[in-house]
């Protein structure tokens, strides 16, 4: 079965496009631009208008994001420096923040000295080049590669002042994560119960100023280790900032959310009780609905499920569906680039609970009650009769326009998942 998963090229572009006042200049053909322009604008819209006629500037090609040089066959033969020089001047006049120049796979083979053009234009202080982010590697690898290049390029303010005991950064959240805006809001809400405020969200909806000020945080909370483990290590080495990981992966479900908040409280030596009380309140609210549904259907206990996702999402979801809702995992397939540590924990959990056969099993080989995956995978599973209900938890997504912020993280995410599971089972 095909795996629908973004690669490092996409992950690298969306890393910078997740910053409010930064932009990507793509040195490559228009074909490499179109989807990424669409995706970055869909995930993090900045312009009020989407009228293509409003973006007819050269190098934008009718789209507001990810301007590109538009290389053609002649440029690959004779070089692209002249076109890049013209593009840099035009785009820099329109985009006022930081610029990252990224080669397309083909352009990286040409070997043009893009740095020389940037120095000639006197723009080395606001423009940096990533020659090769990994391209066909997993999306998380490209995201981290560019994030680390960004940190090395930016001059973060030196810590000659006390660490802010009430400030934390969120690490490892990207525009590639479904419902990222709602996830930021939910994490801020839960951390406020601990008396904490969020500084930078690396890299989803944050600003350059928040990144520059991020070195004085009391700790870095890593939500998705695939997208943040190396970044957190950079902060530890550069500023001595402790990193907080939940042993269950991302805060999906009540157990993993409690685990992460307890870890934060332990590292910062604060009382987790107010945040844990909020989770307990949600447990009671969900129990009423689950017990009523179970009383006439016998579900969700015993319902089967399959998952295709990265390990930091698949592990807490699998653990929670089994432990809290009594559901049975029939197929759990991880996407490339999954975190090795959490992958090991997930495999051990399945073996411990007697579901060895579910490990690394393709969801298309099982018929289950509910499948959790990206939209293209879910469409294929449904067409093959491999699931009765579908819940879209990762990108690519179907295209549903979300007006109200949603999330699968924290308390709000757990309640949303329960709602979608119950309604999915009820309607089949």
Provide key terms for this protein.
Rossmann fold; alpha/beta; 3 domains; 428 residues
**N- to C-terminal distance:** 25 Å
Number of domains: 3
CATH class of the largest domain: Alpha Beta
If you compute it from the alpha carbons, what radius of gyration comes out, rounded to the nearest whole angstrom?
Answer: 22 Å
What topology does this entry show?
Blueprint: H1 8-17, E1 22-27, H2 34-43, H3 73-78, H4 81-94, E2 98-103, H5 105-110, H6 114-120, E3 127-130, H7 139-153, E4 164-171, H8 180-192, E5 197-202, H9 208-212, E6 217-222, H10 229-239, E7 243-244, H11 253-268, H12 273-297, E8 304-309, H13 311-323, E9 328-334, H14 340-352, E10 368-374, H15 375-383, E11 387-394, H16 410-426
Parallel strand pairs: 1-2, 2-3, 4-5, 4-6, 6-7, 8-9, 8-10, 10-11
Helix pairs in contact: 1-7, 8-16, 11-12, 11-13, 11-16, 12-16, 13-14
Describe the structure.
The model has no long low-confidence stretch (mean pLDDT about 95). The protein starts with 7 loop residues before the first helix and ends with a helix. The chain is about 45% helix and about 15% strand. The chain has helices spanning about 10-15, 35-45, 75-80, 80-95, 105-110, 115-120, 140-155, 180-190, 210, 230-240, 255-270, 275-295, 310-325, 340-350, 375-385, 410-425, and strands spanning about 20-25, 100-105, 125-130, 165-170, 195-200, 215-220, 245, 305-310, 330-335, 370-375, 385-395. α1 (about 10-15) crosses α7, α8 (about 180-190) crosses α16 (about 410-425) and α11 (about 255-270) runs antiparallel to α12. About 50% of the residues are buried. The chain has 3 domains: about 10-135, Nitrogenase molybdenum iron protein domain (Rossmann fold, 3-Layer(aba) Sandwich), CATH 3.40.50; about 165-270, Rossmann fold (3-Layer(aba) Sandwich); about 275-425, Nitrogenase molybdenum iron protein domain (Rossmann fold, 3-Layer(aba) Sandwich), CATH 3.40.50. α10 (about 230-240) links the parallel β6 and β7. The strands form 3 sheets. A 4-stranded parallel β-sheet has the order 5-4-6-7. The protein is of the alpha/beta class. It contains 16 helices and 11 strands.
């Amino acid at each position: 079965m095909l795996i629908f998963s973004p690669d490092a090229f996409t992950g690298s572009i969306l890393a910078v496009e997740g910053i409010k006042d930064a932009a990507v200049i793509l040195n490559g053909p228009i074909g490499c631009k179109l989807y990424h322009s669409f995706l970055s604008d869909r995930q993090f819209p900045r312009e009020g208008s989407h009228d293509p006629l409003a973006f007819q500037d050269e190098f934008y090609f009718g789209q507001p994001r990810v301007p590109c040089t538009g290389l053609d066959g002649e440029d690959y033969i004779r070089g692209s420096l002249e076109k890049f020089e013209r593009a840099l001047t035009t785009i820099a006049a329109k985009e006022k923040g930081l610029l990252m120049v990224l080669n397309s796979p083909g352009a990286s083979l040409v070997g043009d000295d893009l740095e020389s053009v940037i120095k000639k234009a006197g723009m080395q202080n606001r423009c940096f080049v990533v020659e090769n982010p990994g391209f066909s590697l997993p999306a998380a690898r490209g995201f981290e590669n560019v994030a680390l290049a960004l940190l090395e390029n930016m001059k973060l303010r030196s810590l000659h002042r006390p660490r802010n005991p009430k400030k934390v950064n969120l690490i490892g959240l990207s525009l590639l994560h479904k419902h990222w805006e709602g996830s930021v809001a939910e994490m801020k809400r839960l951390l406020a119960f601990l008396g904490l405020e969020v500084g930078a969200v690396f890299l989803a909806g944050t600003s350059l100023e928040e990144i520059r000020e991020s070195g004085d945080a009391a700790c870095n909370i890593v939500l998705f280790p695939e997208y943040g483990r190396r970044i957190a290590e950079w902060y530890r080495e550069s500023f001595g900032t402790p990193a907080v990981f939940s042993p269950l992966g991302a805060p999906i479900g009540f157990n993993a959310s409690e685990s992460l908040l307890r870890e934060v409280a332990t590292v910062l030596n604060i009382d987790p009780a107010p945040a844990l009380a909020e989770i307990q309140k949600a447990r009671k609210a969900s129990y009423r609905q689950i017990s009523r549904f179970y009383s006439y259907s016998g579900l969700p206990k015993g319902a089967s499920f399959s998952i295709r996702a990265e390990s930091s999402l698949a592990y807490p979801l699998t653990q929670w569906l089994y432990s809290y809702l009594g559901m049975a995992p029939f197929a759990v397939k991880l996407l490339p680039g999954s975190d090795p540590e959490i992958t090991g924990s997930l495999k051990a959990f399945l073996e411990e609970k007697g579901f060895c056969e579910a490990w690394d099993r393709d969801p298309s080989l099982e018929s289950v009650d509910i499948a959790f995956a990206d939209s293209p995978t879910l469409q294929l599973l449904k067409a093959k009769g491999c699931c009765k209900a579908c819940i879209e938890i990762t990108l690519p997504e179907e295209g549903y326009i979300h007006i109200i912020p949603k999330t699968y993280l924290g308390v709000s995410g757990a309640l949303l998942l329960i709602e979608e599971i119950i309604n999915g089972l009820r309607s089949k």
